[in-house]
């Protein structure tokens, strides 16, 4: 039912106006507003979507002090606190299930072919910059609809009709923003902050450009528009196969003050330090998830995989105890101390979830319930290399989870390798330097497609560090200070080199390889 959104651009278009009624149908379950945030205390899933839900609740301007009030209003009342997980002890390597033996001859899936070396500028004295991570190649795919036709002013302006919330214009290295609507919490503020830091980091590096941005969770430019000669380019935080929206790094990379989630670079380092202290072998040998189960079909299915008297699917599922978190003022929701289980489940809520990077950073094996959305980096992840694929419906999902956990406990070396590969991906390919490089290349490639000369649009105002930071206090201010980039550029190391587009054959081969791996796992499960 959620997918319908992507398939009905027209309907969405109409709905786009109803900002408040927007996206999260599940918020009103059970006589109260269930907020789907998910992730604090012990293993968390931060559903990006909960803010959309809370958006209806007249969320006041945020200062850390105000947050508990907001959230209290949003909470249904305390949910039962998770009891202490019952761990059966460390080892579970004895698997009587015949199927568990099947993949013993686990072989890493074929790896995508190495990229051809990109041509280095002839006679360049400086050593060629190192190539960006492979997921940067998706920039070309995301912009492909405009590759031949270019981006016209008319197409950009049409994108506004999809309820774009603001317009970003860069002229001569300065940032101008025209606001068209409200974003939840400080999504827009921290997104614009991030773009501003990019401009400071690479002075003169970001060409003049003009783009529409929406900050809601789900992509909306439907496939139907694919056939429009000039589809509207719309930037947001995630995309999907069925839509044309262009994924861009979300606000949480610069921090999420309302939830006391630190800027990514700092948090990533803390998680890394936490990993060093939580030996994989000593972690609870189960698959852990905590979040709001009321958002999205996948989460409702996941609930049924929780250990019940009858059947233990090796999953330990907890509903977020929102009320309690609030009382604690998020003080104890330390993401860096949540890598306590060998397996962590990732399941989408209403849209993609920002929790993905925190889960991948854990060194645990990410059990990824087949996602329908992607953010800018997730297409760089390969099944069985960075995560274990899990089916997305019904009891099959539970079987997938049980199988994965049994398999991993029986093959701890392989399992740990998958976990380590994911955390290495996060450390190397998703370091903040690379996030900035991604923004730079995406924006530069987009700018190249413009068929008009960007000018500051009517109603836009210049955004500067001073104008954004003015009047901000508490965590908002702190996170900005922590992520402020000196305006003399990065100093030293320039951006990585953008890899070339996929050829049609490469793209097809990549998709086939991944589908084959998933099918292979399913065959093991079915045995
Ligand atoms: C992790 O813990 C196990 C069991 O306690 C121990 O055998 C192993 O050496 C530890 N590994 C590391 C890297 O500390
Ligand atoms: C899952 O099961 C555990 C143990 O029985 C229980 O504490 C927890 O509340 C359950 N989770 C949900 C979401 O019902
Ligand atoms: C983990 O990454 C390394 C280096 O990229 C690779 O050689 C290895 O095959 C990966 N492991 C798995 C299980 O894919």
Automatic annotation (TrEMBL):
Q: Where is this region: Disordered?
A: 72-125
The organism's place on the tree of life at top rank: Eukaryota
Cite the entry's keywords alphabetically: Membrane, Transmembrane, Transmembrane helix
Residues passing through the membrane, by range? 33-53
Q: Where is the Glycosyl transferase CAP10 domain?
A: 205-453
State whether keyword Transcription applies.
Answer: no
Q: Does the keyword GTP-binding apply?
A: no
**What's a Pfam family this protein contains?**
Glyco_transf_90
Q: Where is the composition biased (Pro residues)?
A: 106-120
What InterPro entries does this protein map onto?
A: CAP10, O-Glucosyltr/Glycosyltrsf_90
Protein name (database record): Glycosyl transferase CAP10 domain-containing protein
Lineage of the organism: Eukaryota, Viridiplantae, Streptophyta, Embryophyta, Tracheophyta
